[in-house]
Structures are given as structure tokens and as C-alpha cells.
Design a protein that fits this description.
5 helices, mainly alpha
Length: 189
């Protein structure tokens, strides 16, 4: 195997560990997206909205974002970003970081609107504010969904890179061809 190809490979153990880490974080995002709902089962904004509950979406989104930022920074510090798979993975992680940081402000707007909603006497104003709340909350959840997809894409890039190990790994002793038996020596005709 060409030594330059070998340097391009991210060690198999690292790849497997990173794939597991990215996949676990993607599952956490998916779980939170499912858990953090604004609308009730009938698709309406509930009459009794809790600022505290909605603000927990803000803090939860910030924690998710912090985790993705840390994961991205840790990956960026590795020597693997010098190869194509590393650069592509870092690009996906960077996208996930960017998208995840955008969710918390929209959740915060939703929580803040609950406080404003209580002070609005006009039903029309309340209706418009509730619509804004639905849009802000849905936007935040969409950012988290897209960040989750970027984490999936990062894991997929590493999974594809893992396939290169099959082609470029050095064969083990049992995989090497057996040399032919030595020919007859000193045999004269």
C-alpha cells in the first residue's frame, strides 16, 4: 500500500468511536425535538402556557448547542482534518454547530411571548402573537432537526471513510499470498 494513502486513513478505532458519538448525539436531538412540543394534540396553542416549561426548551437547546460546539472543537483539533473525510466531517459538524446555536433564540422568543400574551386584552392581538409563537417554536425545532441531519451526515461520511480501510489496509500474514515452493536446485538434465 502506498504510504500516503495510509496517512490519509483515520484510524479505524477513532472512526468507530466518532460514528457512535455522532449517532448518539443525533438521537438526543431527535428525542428533544419530539419532546419539545408547543401545540396540543388538536394542533392548537394550549390555553394555559407555561413560561417555565417553554424556557426549559431554551436551556435545553443551549445545552445541545454547547455539546455540538464542543464536539466540533474536539474534532477540529485532531490531525484527521487534513484528509478529505476529515474536512467533510468537519464541514458537517460546523453546519450542525451553526444550526443548533440558532434554535435557542427562537425558543426564547416563544417563552417571552407567553409573558406578553397575558398582558394583551385584544383577542386579535392575542391571535397574532400565538401565530408568531407557533412560527418561532417551529423554526427552533427545525433548526434542531437540520442540526441532527448534519450530525447524521458527519457519521455517514465517516462510515464511508471506514469502507476505505478494506481497500487500503495492509494485509495480515494470513491474507498474504503463499510464495511458490522453491524450484528444483542443482537438477541437471
Amino acid at each position: 500500500m502506498n504510504p500516503s494513502y495510509h496517512r490519509e486513513l483515520i484510524p479505524r478505532e477513532d472512526v468507530l468511536s466518532l460514528i457512535d458519538e455522532f449517532s448518539a448525539m443525533k438521537e438526543t436531538f431527535a428525542s428533544k425535538i419530539e419532546q419539545w412540543q408547543l401545540l396540543d394534540r388538536s394542533g392548537r396553542v394550549p390555553a394555559a402556557l407555561s413560561f417555565t416549561e417553554l424556557f426549559q426548551h431554551v436551556t435545553g437547546a443551549q445545552e445541545l448547542s454547547r455539546d455540538v460546539l464542543r464536539l466540533t472543537a474536539d474534532f477540529a483539533a485532531r490531525p484527521h482534518i487534513a484528509n478529505p473525510a476529515g474536512r467533510d466531517t468537519l464541514a458537517h459538524l460546523s453546519t450542525a454547530s451553526t444550526l443548533s446555536t440558532r434554535a435557542a433564540p427562537h425558543f426564547a422568543q416563544t417563552a417571552h411571548a407567553v409573558l406578553t400574551l397575558r398582558r394583551l386584552p385584544d383577542p386579535t392581538d392575542q391571535h397574532y402573537l400565538k401565530n408568531e409563537m407557533v412560527i418561532d417554536h417551529a423554526t427552533a425545532r427545525n433548526y434542531l432537526l437540520r442540526a441532527s441531519q448534519s450530525l447524521h451526515d458527519a457519521a455517514q461520511t465517516l462510515h464511508e471513510h471506514l469502507q476505505l480501510h478494506r481497500f487500503f489496509s495492509s494485509p495480515s500474514l494470513s491474507d498474504r499470498p503463499v510464495p511458490p515452493p522453491p524450484g528444483p536446485k542443482g537438477h541437471s538434465r
